[in-house]
Amino acid sequence: MAKIFEQDLFQGGRLNGGYVQSQLPSYDNLLAFIQDTDSPAFLGIDGRSPITHSELGSFVRETFQSLKTQHNLGHGSRIAILIPTGAELPVLLLACLAHFLCVPLNAASPPDEIRSSLRIVGAQAVLVQKGAYDKALSAIARELSIRLVEVVPSKFTAGLIKDDFSAKMESHEAATEQSQNLNGPKDVALVLFTSGTTGFKKLVPTLVEDVVVGVVCLAAAWGLTSQDRGCNFMPLHHVGGIFRNVLAPVFTGGSMVCMGSFDPNQFWDTIVAQSCTWYYGVPVMHKLIVKSALDRRVTSAQVAGIRMVVNSAETLLPSTARDLQQTFTQAAILPCYAMTECMPITSPPKGYALDRPGSVGQ
């Protein structure tokens, strides 16, 4: 499926979702987009080995199947995710998107907000990290009769989960048979709340085929390849983080370094040590990154590998864009526009040189 990026998906210099969809080879489920390579997929910053694309595919295809058996969950089950940001979260997001109706939530939300969200979406189970949730969530789960499914991160591989769900599949044939229950192109795989900027938060369901087209459009617009490595410090309960920082690297065979939270000094340590080539953030984060660069006296050699800085969620002021350009001297600064209901909407071409400041979304 990676060969889709070897063909020209543009029409008159533009990407059109309908045309991109017409050019996609036939596929049964999201497993078709996970490459069978030993190159890193998701990396942590805690010294553990990265999970490879092959290991990621095996986890989604086989190990995660056992969760269905032990907890009596099946196709269409609504599974909420309340996992701390890190390498495990994107892996679990991808697995849930492939198997269930995935409902990512903000693990840092107040208990009342979590209760309300779980009730509204009708969650049947919640994925939580063992030792990383409190009694309030346990009480909410009992109140709403929702299963809490504990996951335990591997001590050795960032992103991998210890297989504590149940016994492993007895054979490859069994795993293949169960994979028929994976979400197909016409199945709803993702349900997200809008940000509520126009009033009450709304629920937005997204089909697998819409996820695929959106991610392919993003990756094609940015020219992402297996040589690219991003740096994630964004929350992953919004469509932007999921499409850009989880799925785009997987589809293209690239990689993503997963920070636990945003810290501008840790960001600089990470992108230099891990040889990152791009990152996505919001304006307030960009400003802190620029300020930290000045404080640390970051050199042009340290940022030479960054070829792309992506902005979304809020308007990128022309002054902030210029500051970013002066900091990341070899990078294209890309102000993008999207909504939960439509991801993506617009993105400048990868060679954009800030020649139309303030025009994003117009």
Give a quick summary of the entry.
This protein has 362 residues and is α/β, with parallel strands linked by helices.
Describe the structure.
The protein is α/β, with parallel strands linked by helices and 362 residues long. It folds into two domains: 52-163 and 170-222 and 237-250, Rossmann fold (3-Layer(aba) Sandwich), CATH 3.40.50; 262-362, Rossmann fold (3-Layer(aba) Sandwich), CATH 3.40.50.980. It is 35% helix and 20% strand. β17 (337-339) and β18 (342-346) form a beta hairpin. α1 (17-23) packs across α8.
CATH architecture of the largest domain: 3-Layer(aba) Sandwich
- CATH class assignment of the largest domain: Alpha Beta
Count of distinct strands:
18
Radius of gyration: 20 Å
- State the fourth-level CATH superfamily of the largest domain: ANL, N-terminal domain
**What's the arrangement of strands in the largest beta sheet?**
9-4-3-13-12-14-15-16
Query: How many alpha or pi helices?
Result: 12
Structural class assignment: alpha/beta
> How many domains comprise the coordinates?
2
